[in-house]
Amino acid sequence: MKFEGNPYERLIGSDRLKSPLLLAATVVFFLISAFAIVYWGMVAGIVLFSIPFILAYVYFLLKNPAIGLFTAVIVGFISIGIGRYIPGIPIGLTMDCILIATYIALFFNKFYEKMDWSPVKKDITLLATIWFGYSVFELFNPEASSLAAWFSGRGIGLYMFLLVPLTLLYIDDQKKLNLFFYIWGIFSILVTLKGIMQVEWGIDYAERAWLNEGNYKTHIIFGKLRAFSFLSDAGQFGANQAYSSVVAGILAIGFKDWRRRIFFGIVALLALYGMIISGTRGAMSVPIAGMGLFIILRKNKTMLIGGIIILLAVIYFFKFTTIGQGSYYIRRMRTAFDLNDASLQVRLQNQRILRAYMATRPFGGGIGHGGVKAQRYLPNAFLSQVPTDSWYVLIWVEQGIVGLILHLFILFYVLIKSSYKIMFRIRDPILKMKLSALASGMFGVMVASYGNAVLGQMPTSILIYISMALLLNSEVFDKDQKLNTRFV
Predict the structure, then answer these.
(1) How far apart are CA 190 and CA 200, in angstroms?
(2) What are the CA-CA distances from residue 26 to residues 39, 47, 48, 243 (Å)?
(3) Is the Cβ–Cβ distance between 264 and 222 less than 8 Å?
(4) Measured at the alpha carbon of residue 89, what is the angle toward residues 393 and 468, in degrees to the nearest 5?
(5) Cα gap 33→25, rounded to integer Å
(6) CA distance 488 to 257
(7) HSE-up of residue 118 (Cα within 13 Å, Cβ side)
(8) Distance CA 440, CA 286 (A)
(9) Residue 223 to residues 199, 226, 328, 450, Cα–Cα distance (Å)
């Protein structure tokens, strides 16, 4: 860079602070911040101090809107945890604002040129639009009685609708696909490390306050803490880490570079340990189902036979032996194979109660109207008195049998079509492994969602919606051969 004039006469570093105008502006800013903290609390102060960083973020977002998509992934991991320390943060609205800001940045970025929407013209975009359209239709459901409840559950259709086009536009080569995996892996490690801290060193004041709100009933079992990290609860922590373990484990097999293998191997092992310390029994179905699909996708008879043997050995270990019964975590996981488990029987009883009520309601009771979470808006409604537990039961209760069939159709359409492409169309071996990782992880989450509302909670929902778009956009990656020589 060429500078004009005498370089010794230029103001640099702290010399710039000698400017009276800049010094006065700095003093005024800190005074305003101090008054804001005194009168409106720490949140106002944090907002003010964040302004320079927000402005810098907006600048880079306008230059490269893809930043918004990756920010959504990060926010999906950390927003709920931050909400425990800074009460009052609108977590859902934060995600909404990031995604909407990304679209605004997209239009400004292409303001002087014609926007190419051809990458978005995919079947997954159509499916996302139909699903969102059905969610909007639920506003006119005669059974629904609370707009606020619908707004609280808007993410069921809205986030898929917003994330799918952004993914198709901005994750369009293997380099960006790898970046997505790295961000996922880094935050998966952080999530597990926080869970380990909770188990080994104890919880902090904010986490204790959260438990004291009534969450201790499900998170302290026989005197043992179920780790929940900085996610919504132990169920989401366990299932998401099981999901991450499947995806990272397959990537560790696929990458040739030893550094990448070590990284994703560490992610896989830590995530698996995170699943264990969460005490979430249903999360066990994620690696079992996910790795089962991966074996099928590999079309390898030896691997298939070996996988079946390992699967049967795992089932036999937990169901028919008492090995390791002295460990709390093994004892708890073993109950997942007990058909007479009290928790399972309660869930089945709740489903029988709901079945009679839902028989005459094909469109459900309205988004946001199902399960105990709806008591905030409808404390005396029938549907808010019966726990839904399962993600599919929640969809059935809120959007009826019509909504459940549509939802399952979309999930299985993506899974079956992508599996066919992986097995018979994709030629790039490393891309096969990447897509196999996404499909296997998605299938594992689909299976686990029968027992818990896994699929609809962050960060799993964000990762699933992005994965669905990636799986049905495989032709774009198959054409990208630039990175293939670095992998097997």
Answers:
(1) 15
(2) 20, 16, 13, 47
(3) no
(4) 45
(5) 12
(6) 9
(7) 3
(8) 9
(9) 12, 10, 10, 27
Q: Tokens representing 366?
A: 């309205």
| 246, 265 Cβ separation under 8 angstroms | no
List own/partner pairs for 295-299 with CB under 8 A and 24 or more apart.
296/419, 297/419, 297/422, 297/423, 297/432, 297/436, 297/439, 297/440, 298/436, 299/423
The CA distance from 317 to 287, in Å, is 16
| Residue recorded with tokens 């209760």 | 397
For the record, the structure tokens of 398 come out as 């809120």
Lookup result for tokens 């990537």:
251
Lowest-confidence pick of 20-34, 144-158, 311-325, 388-402: 20-34
Give the tokens for residue 431: 């891309």
Compute CA distances 303 → 56, 321, 368, 424, whole Å: 50, 26, 44, 18
Q: What is this structure's pTM?
A: 0.86
Distance (Å, whole) CA 227 – CA 230 = 9
Q: What is the DSSP string of 408-470?
A: HHHHHHHHHHHHHHHHHT---HHHHHHHHHHHHHHHHHHHHTTTS--TTSTTHHHHHHHHHHH
Integer angstrom CA distances of residue 158 from 164, 360, 415: 10, 27, 21
DSSP-assigned letter for residue 220:
E
3-class DSSP assignment, residue 194: helix
Cα 15 from chain centroid (whole Å): 46
- Indicate the DSSP class of residue 382: S
Contact 368, 146 (CB under 8 A): yes
The half-sphere exposure of 108 on its side-chain side, counting CA atoms within 13 A, is: 14
pLDDT band at residue 46 using 50, 70 and 90 as cut-offs: low
Residues 282 and 221: their CA atoms lie apart, in Å, by: 16
Complete DSSP assignment for 76-131:
HHHHHHHHHHSTT--HHHHHHHHHHHHHHHHHHHTTTS----GGG-SHHHHHHHHH
User: Which residue spans within 185-250 are E strands per DSSP?
Assistant: 220-221, 224-225
Could you report the per-residue pLDDT of 69-126, keeping only the tens digit for each?
999 999 999 888 888 887 777 777 888 889 999 999 888 877 777 777 888 889 999 9
Separation of alpha carbons 107 and 334, rounded Å: 53
Two tokens at 51?
């302004």
Integer Cα distance of 378 and 316 in angstroms: 45
